[in-house]
Write a structure and sequence with these properties.
Elements (H helix, E strand, L loop, with lengths): L1 H9 L3 H15 L13 H13 L3 H14 L4 H13 L3 H14 L4 H13 L3 H14 L4 H13 L3 H16 L4
Helix pairs in contact: 3-4, 3-5, 4-5, 5-6, 5-7, 6-7, 7-8, 7-9, 8-9, 9-10
Length: 179
Amino acid sequence: APLLAARERFTTDPRLARAWDSIRPRFNRIPSAADVDPAEGALGFVRRGRGRLESGDPAGAKADFDLALAIDPQLGAAYRERGRARSRLGESDLALADLGKAVELDPGDAVAFTVRGGVHADRDDLDSAVSDLARAVEVDPSLAEAHARLGEVLARKGDPPAALAHLSRAIELGSKDPA
């Protein structure tokens, strides 16, 4: 129904109708409630939430991560992804709490450290950002995003040589990405 309502708003102007028709295929790829297999349990809601987050719906994604955590309150990935959604919603304190729980449950989750480092950087807490991003790189040296963010934060802190090393590593790793 929301898609139909949006389409109706765009039909009054032919230019908007053409624009809507060009983006509609993206909406068809957004996971729906039917895409969650009950056998997947909490992981199904995490998967659907990631799709919503990627499609620009952090509030919908957060709702899915809430459902995942209601099913499995020990699922670190759900805390990590809810932290990411909360960050995009501007809820940095809650994002940091979720990301803290994610790394508590899975100290080897380099992505959670990367996201938490990014939240710290957004709040201008550069020392905490460096700490988390350095931990992410330590846990997974092949994570290009962690190197890139660490390079950005080190540049902001006034350490150009270290920043350049991490930014160069991020570029090197990114060029190996098959996507």
